[in-house]
Every structure is written in structure tokens, then in C-alpha cells.
């Protein structure tokens, strides 16, 4: 006759089986719709490129070798792929610069909204989300009209007599960064606001009562308490920024390429699908590292403040 412990153990086993059975449809959908395409891309990265695109079903690691290295056309010696490394560095640099810039502009914006009366906060948040109503391509073209040689900024500066010739801002790294900051700024403001809304501003008043300066209050009270929002906003900006395609294409003019443009080139004109697949997995690995940093920081913050 089964004991009470055995009966309880059997009941727990049945509960586990039922949970797996109920979650099986969702797991299958995730596997097929999310993991399936990624596995195909990973599989393609170990094949041989076809002469007119597509792949030849022959194992090869040349795609991965070509991510950072290139072969000499005469003697097959390997050397660093300077063009790829330049694009990698530009992508990381611009993504980090855009993240820092959105933090600089987004932090005071979120603080301003969080300190408004409750009846007006929804209006300010509504205004922040308005750009999301417009297609990304249209928003990027709007930035182009502002910074081009005959655009709003150069026209105003010339009319004021500050400059004689237009300043070349378009088709530069600066133009790409400005476009990404404009496009992704709401992704920084919203998580920051979510953290600041929960902030107990009596702590800020206590800091001032103890003769702390504004910088000390910001550094020692406000910033540590809203740190999860800073980390979340930074990740939400960094991930799409490092994989941006439309903004570099329009504002970079095809000369200042980033990760996504290089990948598109390999699947298009380059006709090197394995290299494009290897580059895609490389970008995904960078994003995964960023997500792990986010999870580690937010988990540590919750433990300290829990």
C-alpha cells in the first residue's frame, strides 16, 4: 500500500506532466516561429555560397572565417578584414553613442514628466509616444529634411549670417547618430519614467535638507533608485540601434554602413549567404551579451533594494 509521501510524489509528477502538456502548444509555436528561422540561419552559415546566390549543400566554415578575416586572391593568405572591422566598430560606436545621447536627453525629460501633477502626466506621455504613430522611414526622411544642405538648420544659420556655406551634416556618422537618437529616444524615456514615477521624492527633499548639492542628490539618491530604468532603457535603445538598417541607409547614403547594411549586402549584391548568415549570428551574439548584462544588473539591483 502506497504511503502518504509516495502519493504526494505521484501527485506532483502528474502536475508536472499536466503543465508540460498544457504548455506544449506554446512551446512548439515558439520553437517553429522563433527558434526555427534562427536555426536555419545558423545552418546556412556552415554551407558553401552558390555562384548566383543561395547555398551549395557542402559543409564549410569559410563564412565564419570571412567575418573577421579575408583571403588574398593570389596566395590565399589570411589577413584581418579591415572593411568588416571598420563597420563593426562603427556600429558599436554609433549604437553606444546613441544610447548615451538618449540617456542624456531622456533622463531630464522623464524627470520632468514624473514631477508634473498627476492629471497632466498622461498628456506628456501621450506627446512622447506620438512619433511611434508614424512609419520609421517617414521619420528618418523628416530628419533628412532638417540636416541636409538646404535643410532647416543650414538655411536658418545662413539667413542669420552665422555661416556662408552649408555645413555638411548629411551622409556622415553624425547624421546617423542624430537619426537614431530621434527615433529611439522614446524607448529611453518610457522606462526611465516608469522608475521615476515610483521614486519617493521625500528622499530628495531630505537630501536638500541635509545640505546636499543638486549633483550629490542626483548621484547618491535619484540615480541609484532609478538605475533599473536606466539599464532597461539603455538595452531597449542599444539593441535596435546596433541592428539599424533604415536610418544608416537613408542618412548615411550607403557610404557609412552598419551591421544590417553589411548583412543585406551579402544576401543581395554579394551573393554570399553563408557570410551574411554568420554576420547575423554575430549580431545576435552581441545582443545576447547585452541582454545578459541587463538581466545581471537588474537582478542585482532587485536583491539590493528588495
TrEMBL record:
UniProt entry keywords in alphabetical sequence: Cell membrane, Membrane, Transmembrane, Transmembrane helix, Transport
Membrane spanning stretches: 20-47, 94-114, 123-147, 174-194, 229-253, 273-295
Location(s), subcellular: Cell membrane
UniProt keyword Transmembrane present: yes
Broad class of the protein's primary localization: membrane
CDD domains xrefs: TM_PBP2
InterPro entries: MetI-like, MetI-like_sf
GO cellular component, one term: plasma membrane
Domain of life, source organism: Bacteria
ABC transmembrane type-1 domain ranges (all copies): 88-294
GO biological process entries: transmembrane transport
Bilayer topology term: Multi-pass membrane protein
Record family assignment: Belongs to the binding-protein-dependent transport system permease family. CysTW subfamily.
Protein name: Spermidine/putrescine transport system permease protein
Source species: Aminobacter carboxidus
Source species taxonomy: Bacteria, Pseudomonadati, Pseudomonadota, Alphaproteobacteria, Hyphomicrobiales
Amino acid at each position: 500500500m502506497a504511503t502518504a509521501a509516495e502519493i504526494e510524489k505521484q501527485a506532483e509528477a502528474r502536475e508536472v506532466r499536466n503543465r508540460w502538456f498544457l504548455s506544449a502548444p506554446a512551446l512548439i509555436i515558439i520553437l517553429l516561429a522563433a527558434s526555427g528561422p534562427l536555426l536555419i540561419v545558423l545552418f546556412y552559415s556552415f554551407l558553401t555560397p552558390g555562384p548566383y546566390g543561395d547555398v551549395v549543400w557542402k559543409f564549410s566554415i569559410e563564412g565564419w572565417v570571412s567575418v573577421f578575416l579575408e583571403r588574398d586572391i593570389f596566395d590565399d593568405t589570411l589577413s584581418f578584414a579591415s572593411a568588416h572591422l571598420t563597420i563593426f566598430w562603427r556600429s558599436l560606436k554609433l549604437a553606444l553613442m546613441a544610447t548615451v545621447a538618449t540617456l542624456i536627453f531622456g533622463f531630464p525629460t522623464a524627470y520632468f514628466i514624473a514631477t508634473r501633477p498627476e492629471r497632466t502626466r498622461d498628456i506628456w506621455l501621450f506627446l512622447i509616444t506620438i512619433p511611434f504613430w508614424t512609419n520609421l522611414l517617414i521619420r528618418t526622411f523628416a530628419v533628412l529634411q532638417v540636416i541636409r544642405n538646404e535643410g532647416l538648420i543650414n538655411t536658418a544659420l545662413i539667413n542669420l549670417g552665422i555661416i556662408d556655406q552649408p555645413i555638411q551634416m548629411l551622409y556622415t556618422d553624425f547624421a546617423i547618430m542624430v537619426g537614431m537618437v530621434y527615433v529611439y529616444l522614446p524607448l529611453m524615456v518610457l522606462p526611465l519614467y516608469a522608475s521615476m514615477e515610483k521614486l519617493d521624492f521625500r528622499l530628495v527633499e531630505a537630501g536638500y535638507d541635509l545640505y546636499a548639492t543638486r549633483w550629490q542628490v542626483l548621484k547618491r539618491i535619484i540615480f541609484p533608485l532609478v538605475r533599473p530604468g536606466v539599464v532597461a532603457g539603455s538595452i531597449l535603445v542599444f539593441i535596435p540601434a546596433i541592428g539599424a538598417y533604415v536610418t544608416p541607409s537613408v542618412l548615411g547614403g550607403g557610404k557609412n554602413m552598419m551591421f544590417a547594411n553589411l548583412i543585406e549586402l551579402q544576401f543581395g549584391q554579394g551573393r554570399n549567404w553563408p557570410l551574411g548568415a554568420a554576420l547575423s549570428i554575430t549580431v545576435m551574439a552581441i545582443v545576447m551579451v547585452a541582454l545578459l548584462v541587463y538581466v545581471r544588473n537588474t537582478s542585482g539591483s532587485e536583491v539590493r533594494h528588495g
